[in-house]
Each structure stands twice: as C-alpha cells, then as structure tokens.
From TrEMBL:
Superkingdom in the source lineage: Eukaryota
Similarity comment: family membership: Belongs to the RNase T2 family.
CDD domains: RNase_T2_euk (cd01061)
Record-linked InterPro entries: Ribonuclease_T2_eukaryotic, RNase_T2-like, RNase_T2-like_sf, RNase_T2_His_AS_1, RNase_T2_His_AS_2, RNaseT2L_C
Physiological role: Rnase which modulates cell survival under stress conditions. Released from the vacuole to the cytoplasm during stress to promote tRNA and rRNA cleavage and to activate separately a downstream pathway that promotes cell death. Involved in cell size, vacuolar morphology and growth at high temperatures and high salt concentration.
Residues annotated as signal peptide: 1-19
Primary localization class, coarse: cytoplasm
Protein name: Ribonuclease T2-like
Biological processes annotated in GO: RNA catabolic process
Catalytic residue positions: 80, 138, 142
Gene Ontology molecular function: hydrolase activity; ribonuclease T2 activity; RNA binding
Lineage: Eukaryota, Fungi, Dikarya, Ascomycota, Saccharomycotina
Provenance organism: Ogataea haglerorum
Length: 407
C-alpha cells in the first residue's frame, strides 16, 4: 500500500512537471492554455471545459472478444467504444438529446469520410450485424457526454462535426491498442482446450500498456471484454491520452480462463449454447415483470417512478438492452433520468440503461451503488428519487421479480 501511494505521488509530480512542456489543443486544433492539467488531476477550477474533459475525465477505450456469434476478424478484438467515466468511477449517459443522431453512416458520408466508414465496418462490429446501430448507440450514450467536443468548442461548427471526431478518435485509440497481438506475443492465443491464468493475461497486457488493464470474463469464464483507462490532456480529438491503471479489478477467475476461438457454429459445449440463448433474447426482448422496492424502507415505486408508501406497487418490466445494461419500463412508458436528475417513467422520458445484478436484485444507475431521496414520503406524498447518495435518505433499489413477460 505504502509503495503504491508513493508511486502515485511521484506520478502526480511527473505529470505536473510534464504539463509545462506539453501543449494541448481544443477540438478544432487551436491551442489551449499550456498549463492545462490532465483530466481528473486538477487542484483548482478549470472553467474552460473545451480544453479540459469534465466531468468525464477518465477515458476508456473498450474492446470486445465476441466469440459466439463470432464477430469481426478471427485475430482481432473489435472496438466497443470510447467512454467517459467520472473521476470517481461513476458515469453519465445519454447526456444531451439535442446532439443525438439516428444514422451514423449518413453523417460520415455527408462529411466525405468514406475511408473512416470502411475502417469502422472492419473493426467496430455489432454482433447482430448492424454496425450502424452500435455506432449510433455509442455516440448517443457516451459521445454526447464529452465536454471538449460540444458544438460551442468549435470555431466554425458544422452540424455533427463532433460525431465524426468522436468516431475517428475511437478508431485511432483502438488501433494503438492491439490486444490480440499483445496477447499472442505472450503466447496467449485462442484455443478450445488451453486456458490461461489471470496473472498471465494481466502481465501480457500491463507490460504493453504500461498500466493495469481491465479484462472481463463472461459466465463461461471466457475472456470477452478489455478496457483501457486514460486521463486526457486537451480535447478528445486533439489531446494527449495518458494511460492510467484500471479503476476496477477483473472478474475473471485466477486460473482456467478461456480464450475461445471465434468460429461459426458451436459444436460441443453447452455453455456456449447458453450464451447464444442470452444473445438471442437480447434481439427479441424477454422481460421480467416485477416491483421496484427500497431495501429497508416501506413502500415502493409507482408507475411514474416516484416513491410511495401507501398504495399498490407498479409493475415494472426489466429487459436486457441491446448493447449491455437493462431497460426499465412501467405502464406509463420507458424509464430514465429526467433533466432534474430524478428517476422517471413515461412519455417524454429518454430510455436509460440501468445495471441489474440478478443475484442480489439490485438495480443501479451510472455506476452509483445506491439511490437517495430528499425524505421518506408521508402518507399520500410521492417522493422522487435520484441515483447516488446526494440526498438525505439513502437506500438500495431492489427489483423483485414477479413473473416473466414474453414479447
Ligand atoms: C476540477 O475542475 C472542475 C471543472 O472546472 C471543477 O468543477 C472541479 O472542482 C475541479 N477540481 C478541483 C479539485 O478543484
């Protein structure tokens, strides 16, 4: 522990010193103050968030190993996205509906970006075959949360310029992080019989990236995602990405980690069939109906998303969302977080993605473990709730499944 914090201290000194020598840039290439700190390392306010990525100052370059419904080249992890996390590991999503797009290809073509588009089709693959869907989702969910590519950060902004910048940078960062090659060089290659230890994979990736890399295993103990964490000096398209240690630790077992071959049909393994079933149910959602209850508190959520203690609980439908995460809906409509930060369901609410842990039943949002409300509702009051612990009454939200809804 001691040596770790000493190391962190030295790194802070190193990066502070480096600040005097490295320049940083706005999205449009004009320069930023030369002493702009690395994201998440500032010790005072930085008002110009066109030069300083905030609040999502941790940038993750994420990759898939889609081996069932094999996706992309056999010898390549494919691009998942470029995600901003907050400095404390929580994150926002779908931050600005006015910037959302519905067709990524159209945007790229309108900017004459055929080459980028072709490259994206090679490396940025949707396992259901609709790459455009994945790109739209990634930009709308994560790209709209980036402060340094807001339209106001550009001098002569053309509508959707920032979308192209987001896609181009996502591909560039991805290309500098060739996971497959790095693993292969360490003797870690796909196999139906060999397995690997956590330490082997950890060392292979850390020795190349220079920092701890997060790798995720699926329910078959097979490697299926890699996340590289960075801080950023300057803007998303022009800035300097500095590797940092992963902020979470791997869920893979210490030994026996599989690295399955990407191949067209699964032959022997039952476990692979299990994954395929879950992938299929994503395409045709099978939702669970149930109540949203508050742990250690009376009452539950009613259909508008508010907390109520003296009535019947609303039935919520919980279903797997297309690109990870879960969606919630009540009879009023889909659920999300409204512009005041409250949980809400109904028309006019933008569907958000929640996380759900089926073993504990906990429903969470944006990496925040719990939820809070301003007060416990009195007899007939409906009290709104927010993700996180910013309000007085803190609790966890539990999805209590009642029955299965088949759509
Ligand atoms: C870092 O900068 C942001 C944006 O200006 C500000 O909100 C935050 O308080 C700053 N952090 C510190 C420790 O001063």
């Amino acid at each position: 522990m001691v040596s770790h914090s000493v190391l962190q201290y030295l790194l802070v000194i190193a990066s502070t010193t480096a600040a005097h020598y490295s320049s940083s840039f706005r999205a449009d290439g004009s320069s930023c103050p030369s002493d702009i700190p690395l994201s998440c390392t500032n010790s005072s306010q930085i008002p110009d968030t066109c030069c300083f990525e905030y609040p999502g100052g941790v940038l993750l370059q994420t990759q898939f190993w889609d081996y069932d419904y094999p996706t992309g080249p056999d010898d390549m992890f494919t691009l998942h996205g470029l995600w901003p996390d907050n400095c404390d590991g929580t994150y926002s999503q779908f931050c600005d509906s006015s910037l959302q797009i519905s067709d990524a290809e159209e945007v790229l073509i309108s900017f004459g970006e055929q080459q980028l588009l072709e490259r994206m089709h090679e490396v940025w693959k949707d396992y259901q075959g609709n790459d455009n869907n994945l790109w739209v989702h990634e930009f709308n969910k994560h790209g709209t949360c980036l402060s340094t590519i807001k339209p106001s950060c550009y001098e002569n902004f053309e509508t959707n310029r920032e979308v192209v910048d987001y896609f181009r940078k996502s591909v560039e960062l991805f290309e500098g992080l060739p996971t497959y090659k790095w693993l292969e060089a360490a003797g870690i290659t796909p196999s139906d019989s060999r397995t690997y230890s956590k330490q082997q994979i950890d060392e292979a990736l850390r020795s190349r990236f220079g920092k701890e890399v997060y790798f995720k295993c699926d329910r078959n103990h097979a490697l299926n995602e890699i996340w590289y964490f960075h801080h950023l000096r300057g803007s998303i398209p022009q800035g300097n990405y500095v590797p940092i240690d992963a902020m979470i630790s791997s869920n893979c077992p210490s030994f026996g980690i599989k690295f399955p071959l990407k191949k067209a049909s699964s032959t022997s393994s039952d476990t692979i069939t299990a994954t395929k079933t879950s992938a299929t149910s994503t395409a045709t959602p099978t939702g669970n109906g149930g109540y949203l209850k508050l742990e250690n508190q009376a009452g539950c959520l009613i259909s508008n998303g508010k907390w109520f203690v003296s009535g019947t609980c609303a039935t919520y439908k919980l279903s797997e969302a297309s690109f990870g995460g879960y969606q919630l809906a009540s009879s009023k409509g889909v659920c999300g977080i409204d512009s005041d930060g409250y949980f809400a369901c109904g028309s006019g609410v933008i569907a958000a993605q929640f996380d759900y842990d089926s073993s504990s039943g906990h429903v969470t949002y944006g990496g925040q473990p719990g939820w809070s409300a301003g007060r416990v509702p009195s007899r007939n009051a409906q009290v709104p709730i927010v993700p996180g612990s910013s309000l007085n009454v803190n609790f966890r939200l539990i999805f209590e499944a009642r029955y299965k809804i088949i759509q």
